[in-house]
């Protein structure tokens, strides 16, 4: 039986940390959204920069937040690539998040998420990104939610598992 050296132990730990921090897009590719119907959630004409609009998606029990950030965002649409949407349920305990000062904030335990970077958590008790809701904009300027990338808090299955 071989002994594990301190160097090998630390090296293995670093490998695990590196694998766990792979970009979110790769994780999402492994966990695609269920086939939710495209749902109209707003329009370009009523969307105001810096003001979030709440909507129900993928069903009446789940609230989302539509944003026009005023700067380009990962997954953003529109002329400036700044229109994005996220689940409004914090990934820590499901409290409703609000858009304040260029970030999504949870009032319950102070988690903060960056809407320009896929809803990445950068402060607080939440340990995962907010699920991003991919959008489509039609020729008339109507905005549609078309999927959910990630697991909405409190749900056991809103994404497909491998082989399902």
Describe it.
GO terms for molecular function: 2 iron, 2 sulfur cluster binding; arsenate reductase (azurin) activity; metal ion binding. This is Arsenite oxidase small subunit. It comes from Deinococcus metalli. β9 and β10 form a beta hairpin. The protein has a single domain, classed as Rieske Iron-sulfur Protein, CATH 2.102.10. It contains 2 helices and 10 strands. It is 13% helix and 24% strand. The protein starts with 5 loop residues before the first helix and ends in a 19-residue tail after the last strand. The protein has a 4-stranded antiparallel sheet with strand order 5-6-7-8, with no helix packed on it. A 3-stranded antiparallel sheet has the order 1-10-9, with no helix packed on it. The protein has a 3-stranded antiparallel sheet with strand order 2-3-4, with no helix packed on it. It is α+β, with helices and mostly antiparallel strands.
What tags apply to this protein structure?
four-stranded antiparallel β-sheet, 2Fe-2S, metal-binding, three-stranded antiparallel β-sheet, single chain, Rieske Iron-sulfur Protein, arsenate reductase (azurin) activity, alpha+beta, 164 residues, AioB/IdrB_ssu
